[in-house]
Amino acid sequence: MSEVRAVGAAVDPDGDPDERRLAWVYLSRVVQGPCAPLSALIASVGVCEAARAVRERELPTALRGPTAARREMDSAAADVDAIERLGGRVITPDDDEWPSWRMLGLDQLDTERDREAAVPLVLWARGPLSLHTASERAVAVVGSRCSSGYGLQVASEIACDLAGRGWTIVSGAAFGIDAAAHRAALAVGGATVAVLACGVDRPYPAQHDRLLAAIADSGLVVSEYPPGISAQKHQFLARNRLIATLGDGVLVVEAGLRSGARNTVKWARRLGRPAMAVPGPVGSASSAGCHRMIRDGEAVLVTRADDVVDEAGPLRLPVTDGNPAEPGADLRGAEAEIYAALPVIGSRLPRELSQQSGLDLATVRAVLPSLELAQLVGCDSDGWFRTSRRQAS
User: Fold this and answer.
1) Within a 10 A sphere around the Cβ of 163, how many other Cβ atoms?
2) Where is the Smf/DprA SLOG domain (predicted)?
3) CA–CA separation, 191 and 187 (whole Å)
């Protein structure tokens, strides 16, 4: 990548904050969505140098096409003014509000396998909630747009119960299950986050302008797309990864066999997040996707908020009757399988853990940071190891 001025040079994290913010915003407008090659360039040379390279066309081949159409369009200052006039803001990776630990999973995924897997450059937001705080304890609730009365009732009851317990409800503000989940959270004064596939100044669907306004009043409406961008089909698939990323798990309430909710579950599984599905009547086409996911082991069957909390709740190390539980005894799903694959003594590399656990490498890489946050595992030059054994020795 010799065409870029200082590839591999140390990045100055203490550059002018305003200059960095405008650089982030400029690049967000240029690529409009996830762009793994640009993220890699920023990681190598810093955001300001990456913005300069895009403007001056000193780019590797992989970035010439994605930046060609809009590299001359430097409307960063106008975009910042536009979002501020809406009462909103732009959140960059430099900001305290950026949910860094949530993005760890995305950062571990193979972007050659899914180009949408890249971490968003920035997030545009409207609403009083801090995204960092709101996503600390959150569940994504998604499902069919053509929902039945049964689905709407179940989604509302579970979302209402979760929101009442302090969980943030994350969804996509679509018709059907999404809207029911948002409204249930609002009804009990709970926190809810709507993730859009268009600019936050463009209500989508248009019929949900009042719902989105209500969410922006007390919760948060976010998007990785700059103001003024209309919703396009491919943007919904990219949006789904953010819905999965911002939650501790994904709950599907009604989904057809070809439902977009199954795409969100795919992202959850790749990120190492639990996927859950509510069963419906056996003959219901609206629940056929849920039944398939449950049957194929892609999602755990749940019927109430308690089940969701059991699956998506924080990692716990319970102690009963004065006898400490074995470390990792409370783990479930991918976390349990990866922890079990670690030896009692010694270390393992992610690829070895993938082979031993039977999970794909992307899932292993996404789950290991969450186990590290729970202080169950650590990492050194030899690989990953169980911290409890190291501490005891």
Assistant:
1) 25
2) 90-311
3) 10
Average pLDDT over residues 311-338: 65
User: What's the pLDDT tens digit per position in 58-87?
Assistant: 888 888 888 888 888 888 999 999 999 999
The DSSP result for 53-82, as a single string, is: HHHTT---HHHHHHHHTTTT---HHHHHHH
Residue 381's identity, in one-letter code, is S
The structural architecture, per CATH, of the domain 321-392 is Orthogonal Bundle (1.10)
Is beta strand 123-126 parallel, antiparallel or unpaired with respect to 220-223? antiparallel
Measure the CA–CA gap between 178 and 172, rounded to whole angstroms: 6
Q: Which two tokens stand for residue 74?
A: 């430097």
List C-alpha distances in Å: 61 to 1, 39, 49, 104, 219: 9, 15, 17, 27, 41
Q: Give the domain 134-194+232-312 fold.
A: Rossmann fold (3.40.50)
Parse the chain into domains and list their residue ranges.
17-107, 134-194+232-312, 321-392
CA distance 266 to 301: 16
Q: Is 108 helix (H, G, I), strand (E, B) or coil?
A: coil
Higher pLDDT, residue 360 or 83: 83
Chain centre distance of CA 290:
21
Q: Is the pLDDT of residue 284 over 80?
A: yes
3-state secondary structure of 126: strand
User: Could you give the count of Cα atoms lying within 13 Å of 142 in the half-sphere of its Cβ?
Assistant: 33
By three-state DSSP, how is residue 313 classified?
coil
118 SS3 class: coil
Question: pLDDT tens digit string along 137-157?
Answer: 999 999 999 899 999 999 999
Q: Which residues fall within 8 angstroms of residue 364, CB to CB, at 6 or more apart?
A: 338, 350, 353, 354, 357
> DSSP letters along 226-253, please?
PTTPPP-HHHHHHHHHHHHHTSSSEEEE
